[in-house]
């Protein structure tokens, strides 16, 4: 039990510490490739500290949704990073690190964001929420299918066991099932976290924004929770995809040395993949809104093919 508590604490500390740094690295890489200086890798820390120091302003007559939706998003994101094997593949006692539980927690934050956009009562908020839920309807089944395909050879839907099985058996990494599932999962991470080409996190154009449209009416501490919660979702999902694709370096036990090595390995992998993702975003454009479902449907087909192939290969 103490080992589980220690691993959960390490997951939380790592996620809270590296998330603003990851966002700062991604923004800096993109800025330098675009010929700009940028705010530096520590700018996200300054932004959230500034926001947490401000009182939120809410319109008269607004419902409690404006207050609890940011907290619910932040809470679900914290639960998400504890359930995902970021540092260790050790089974956690009394912690349901199951695929279906993780997807349910992810959906909880998605619904909180959608409710926040609708509560604003603006046309842009409603459009952002409807687009957000449309994307979710295509993304969530893809998450389930892609990771389920990876769970077939392992025989369990526990994420830690899946990562541990892929680390111990190299043949599980180099086969069509793994390649198709990881490709589908990468598209899911991009769509779920609002990155290009699905959404542009740095724009406020009314006709194109999705995530930004839902948080337009939030400010101060509420906006700080929303920003940090969204960043944590990126850290969790990116960490899951990276550790499924490259599962080496994670701790197999709760010893101090193993956890230090796992923390350092995950930090390096996240920063490298985040920088690569930001670099790719410089050279691609945002898709037209009605082309996004085609991309997400394509990722669903890849996940479906990976599930079908898993029963033929294994």
List keywords for this structure.
314 residues, mainly alpha
Question: Topology of this structure?
Answer:
Blueprint: H1 2-33, H2 43-52, H3 65-83, H4 99-119, H5 123-151, H6 159-168, H7 176-192, H8 211-214, H9 220-245, H10 256-282, H11 292-313
Helix pairs in contact: 1-3, 1-9, 1-10, 2-9, 3-4, 3-9, 4-5, 5-7, 5-11, 7-9, 7-11, 9-10
Number of separate strands: 0
Mean pLDDT: 89
Q: How far apart lie the N and C ends?
A: 34 Å
Query: How much of the polypeptide forms β-strand, as a percent range?
Result: under 5%
**Strand/helix succession:** HHHHHHHHHHH
* Derived structural class: mainly alpha
Q: Gist?
A:
The protein is mainly alpha-helical and 314 residues long. It is built from eleven helices and no strands. The protein has helices spanning 2-33, 43-52, 65-83, 99-119, 123-151, 159-168, 176-192, 211-214, 220-245, 256-282, 292-313.
């Amino acid at each position: 039990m103490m080992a589980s508590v220690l691993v959960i604490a390490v997951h939380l500390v790592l996620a809270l510490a590296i998330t603003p740094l990851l966002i700062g690295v991604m923004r800096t890489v993109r800025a330098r490739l675009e010929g700009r200086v940028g705010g530096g890798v520590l700018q996200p820390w300054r932004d959230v500290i500034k926001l947490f120091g401000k009182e939120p302003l809410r319109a008269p007559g607004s419902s409690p949704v404006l207050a609890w939706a940011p907290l619910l998003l932040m809470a679900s994101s914290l639960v998400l990073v504890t359930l995902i094997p970021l540092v260790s593949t050790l089974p956690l006692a009394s912690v349901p690190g199951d695929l279906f539980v993780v997807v349910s927690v992810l959906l909880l934050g998605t619904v909180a964001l959608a409710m926040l956009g609708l509560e604003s009562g603006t046309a842009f908020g409603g459009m952002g929420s409807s687009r957000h839920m449309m994307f979710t309807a295509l993304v969530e089944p893809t998450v389930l299918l892609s990771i389920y395909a990876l769970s077939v050879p392992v025989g369990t839907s526990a994420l830690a066991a899946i990562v541990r099985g892929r680390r111990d058996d190299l043949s599980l990494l180099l086969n069509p099932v793994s390649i198709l599932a990881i490709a589908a999962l990468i598209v899911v991470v991009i769509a779920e976290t609002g990155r290009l080409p699905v959404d542009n996190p740095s724009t406020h154009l009314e006709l194109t924004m999705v995530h930004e449209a839902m948080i337009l009416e939030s400010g101060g501490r509420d906006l700080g929770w929303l920003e940090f919660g969204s960043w944590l979702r990126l850290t969790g999902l990116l960490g899951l995809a990276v550790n499924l694709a490259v599962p080496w370096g994670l701790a197999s036990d709760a010893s101090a040395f193993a956890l230090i090595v796992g923390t350092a390995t995950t930090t390096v992998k996240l920063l490298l993949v985040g920088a690569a993702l930001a670099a790719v975003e410089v050279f691609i454009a945002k898709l037209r809104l009605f082309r996004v479902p085609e991309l997400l449907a394509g990722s669903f087909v890849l996940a479906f093919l990976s599930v079908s192939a898993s029963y033929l290969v294994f």
